[in-house]
Amino acid sequence: MRFFDWIKDFFGIEQSTVYLNQQAITTQEVQLAVRDFAICSAINLISGAISKCEFKTYSNGNEFKGDEYYLWNVEPNKNQNSSQFIQEFISKLLYYNECLVLDINGQLIIADDFTQTEYAVFENIFSNVIRGTMKFDRSFKMSEVLYFKYCNNDIQQLLCNLMTGYNNLLNMAIGKYKRSGGRKGIAKVDKTPSGDSEFQKKVDDLFNNRFKSYFEAENSVIHIPKGVEYIEQNGEGNKKSTSDLVDISKIIEEEFDRVAQAFKIPPALLKGDIADIGKLTDNFLTFCIDPLVDLISEEINRKRYGKKVFLKNSYLKIDTTCIKHIDIFSISEAFDKLVASGGYSIDELRIKAGDIPLNTDFSKKHWMTKNYTDIQTVKGGEE
Predict the structure, then answer these.
(1) Closest-CA residue to 140 (of 180, 111, 178, 165)
(2) In sequence order, which residues have a C-beta less than 8 Å from that of residue 118 and are 6 or more positions away?
(3) Neighbours of 36 (CB within 10 A)
């Protein structure tokens, strides 16, 4: 079917006047990966933050650096350092809503794929476990692995369903913006020579080739055969409007807001706003990072330490204070108060500030100024 005949057949009319781009506009769909970009931005923000945390290990209530500390903070396996491992682990947990970590000969290995068989009373079984090109030829019990599940509902599926509506609105807004700046015109074709095959070929070539080159070129001249009249349609409606761009930006911003809401991230923080960054970071740590690290540390403690050892005050704790950048000059007054009140030793605060401890007798002690004393020892009156 020739292009011109196809246009007339589509509109179901025998008119000789056809508006260009009308069919292209109705079928045009603009597909943008805004949802995936927003999700990846959120996951990278969370995984990058947790990779900065220190996985502290304690033995009988005292901080202790041993094999377990080295495993989580330096080298979990031969192919990854701790930052790479934690970022991959958190990314899989958030993106797929679950993550499986194996202990293979003292190395922590993240599974790429697995099958879980669930039971009500007995331990769940993990089979068909794959890492890279390797498939493990055995099954694993729940007590033999670290299994993390982010939430009961699949956040990916929920976001996908929610974003479908936003994508439709986005496609409509982009289509409106493109139409507002497009070239428009009316072509009138004389009916009388329509049976001429040579004339039909010229019309086909005009609509299929020459008009396309004419509209795409910055400067161009087109020859229109006899029997065809083209009238350019210019006016205010053809100019691009700032409001159209604002509509597109608002829809994209709405998608980022919904993704941030799903991952409990302050929307302004995900979009890169720097106003009130301190409050945004505190909100991010409280509602997003802290619940996530609690989930991780609980699974590690119950599987790698166990009830008896844990109750003897030996456990792993994830320190999230490492996430925020600390300027020692801005915290000098608070530093002094913490030492003077006996809350922390000098070495403890030096470590939190990112400096090395002095490891001296006085730096390990807890000090208290004379301003702090037991209220019961204070005497009033002349005494």
Answers:
(1) 111
(2) 124
(3) 12
The token pair that represents 322 in the structure block = 């490492």
Q: Whole-model pTM?
A: 0.70
Single-letter amino acid, residue 148: F
For residue 74, give both structure tokens.
């330096």
Site of tokens 């350019």: 232
β pairing state of 145-149 and 140-141: unpaired
Task: Give the DSSP H or E segment for 187.
Answer: strand 185-189
**Chain segment 40-81, per-residue pLDDT in tens:** 899 999 999 999 999 999 999 898 999 999 999 999 999 999
Neighbours of 353 (CB within 10 A): 13
CA 180 – CA 168 distance, rounded (Å):
18
Beta bridge partners of 135: 130
Task: Decide if 302 contacts 37 (C-beta within 8 A).
Answer: no
Tens of pLDDT, residue by residue over 290-318, are 999 999 999 999 999 999 999 999 999 99
Pair of tokens at residue 331? 């915290």
Ordered by start, the domain boundaries in the chain are: 3-29+185-232, 31-97+150-181+241-325, 328-383
Buried b / exposed e over 156-192, threshold 16 CB at 10 Å, is eeebeeebeebbebbbebbbebebeeeebeebebeee
Report yes or no: 145 and 96 within 8 Å, Cβ to Cβ.
Answer: no
% pLDDT > 70, the chain: 74
Please give the radius of gyration of the chain, using alpha carbons only, rounded to the nearest integer. Answer: 33
